[in-house]
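Task 17 of the worksheet. Students: predict the tertiary structure of the chain below and write it out as structure tokens. Keep your answer in the requested format; marks are given for formatting as well as content.
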Amino acid sequence: MNRQFNDNELNLANPRTSPLWLRVAFWMSIAIALAVAARRILALAFPPHGGTPQIAALDAVFASHRALTLGHILPAVLFVLVCPFVVFSFGEVTSWANRAIFPLGAVVGLSAYAMSAYSVGGWVERSAVLMFNTLYLYSLLRAYGHFRHGDSHFERRWLLRAVAILLGIATTRPVMGVFFATSPLTHLGPSQFFGIAFWIGFSANALAVELWLRARDREFQTERMATRSES
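Model answer:
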């Protein structure tokens, strides 16, 4: 009974256990991630003509390793599409979502290491990818280990961490937008601010999910102690 209650406490679909800002942020991240992926796939299939020099230069970088880019983006799109079934499921994650989330996540993580060789932001961006991608794969591996042992509660905790870190790529986009908009004043180019945006975006997501998980733990412990005192 305690385990069932604790699992439901980690369900973002339940307004009682998840703040509105967290649910809104999740869906915004999903939308941004899919939009960015769609734009990149279209740019690879139909190279755009015109646009700003900065955007054209970015398109050229990704076009220079088209196969690797698609090998990373396409599994990432599928992963993002499966994420809502993982995040908003009640109790244990559905079996089909479990079968999909782990292999897709592994492909996305491993290909991200290869993509880092072409980092626009140089070693600042690459260091963010190496750190947070490793943390993402570690979380995914821990979730898979708990899945194999039938421990749905800890599987869910580590999956939420993995999902939040992966969606950090969506959080970087508004940050990049600010840098692009202010570039006439700051005179910073993508090679200078991409790395900073990556650190901000991934850090924000990793910190947000960790703070929420720990807040749920504290609230659960408080409720459990109140229940014991009443009995």
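Marker's comment: Residues 1-6 have pLDDT under 50 and may be disordered. The chain has nine helices and no strands.
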